[in-house]
Amino acid sequence: MRDTAAERCRGEARPRRARPHEAPRLHMDDYYARAREFRAWLTARHQYLDELTSTEARRAFREFADAWNAGSLDDAYYTGTARGAHSRYRWAWARAAPCAAADVERGSERRAARAAAQAWLDEHAPRATGREALLAKKKERAASHRAMAERRQLDDDVADGLSEDALLGTDSSFAAALAERERAAARRAEARKEATYARDARLAARQRKEADTMAQLRQMAAKRYG
User: Which domain of life is it from (predicted)?
Assistant: First the structure.
């Protein structure tokens, strides 16, 4: 009795025969080598990998392997599998979920959606160009240069007001001048500290605002692109 087209479409098993095209024998660790054929076989039976439990998936693949090894599948299962046939991967049953193959297929769709969302974010909220970072570094260098200039000026001012004996360390005013210099340096350091604190507080507030804005934009993109 000849097979009907519907039977061939469903991948119904045929009587045992030699495996066509010298197809290799399948074993339980050959899932990735024949993942595409296995999924097609399941689809013909109206089954889907992500709906099967681990036990059901193993049992289904064992049935598929038995039919494959018996050469009882349609020729389409033994041809057109060049990429899968050369895969080095094996299905690690004890470690991988039975829906791993379906996850791989869905992964490309998720990556495309993320790329579209990122493109939307780049268009509506472009990433920082680094200009603010460069300005911050310039400000830091300028502050450092000012501090050095202030120290040099302080040394010059103190030296101008000291006698030769004081400069040589033979006058008691030398110790007083050093103390005054230290106090002036401490005052300037405290002023710089307060200025730095205020600048950092403003920067932190701006960064929080930008982070909130980006979070809102990402939520909008996620709703739009899924």
Answer: Eukaryota
- Contact criterion met (CB below 8 Å) for 64 and 38: yes
Residue 204 · residue 188 · CB < 8 Å: no
In a domain, residue 155? The reply is no
CB 195 within 8 A of CB 202: no
- Same domain (yes/no): 71, 98: no
The Cα 74–Cα 52 span in angstroms is: 24
Domains: count for the chain: 3
CA distances from 224 to 22, 43, 121, 126, 213 (A): 50, 31, 11, 18, 17
Please report whether residue 151 resides in a domain. Answer: no
State the SS3 of 127-178.
Answer: CCCCHHHHHHHHHHHHHHHHHHHHHHHHHHHHHHCCCHHHHHCCCCHHHHHH
Phi, psi torsion values for 73, nearest 5 degrees: -90, 165
What span, in angstroms and rounded, lies between the C-alpha atoms of 10 and 42? 9
Instruction: Answer whether residue 166 is part of any domain.
Output: no
* pTM beyond 0.70, yes or no: no
34 and 68 assigned to the same domain: yes
- Domain assignment present for 189: yes
Q: State residue 181's pLDDT score.
A: 75
% helix / strand / coil in the chain, to the nearest 5?
70, 0, 30
Going from the first residue of the chain to its last (226 residues), give the mean pLDDT of each consecutive group of 10, the final group possibly shorter.
45 59 82 81 84 85 90 79 37 47 63 66 55 70 75 56 50 63 83 85 84 79 69
Q: Let me know whether 34 and 64 are in one domain.
A: yes
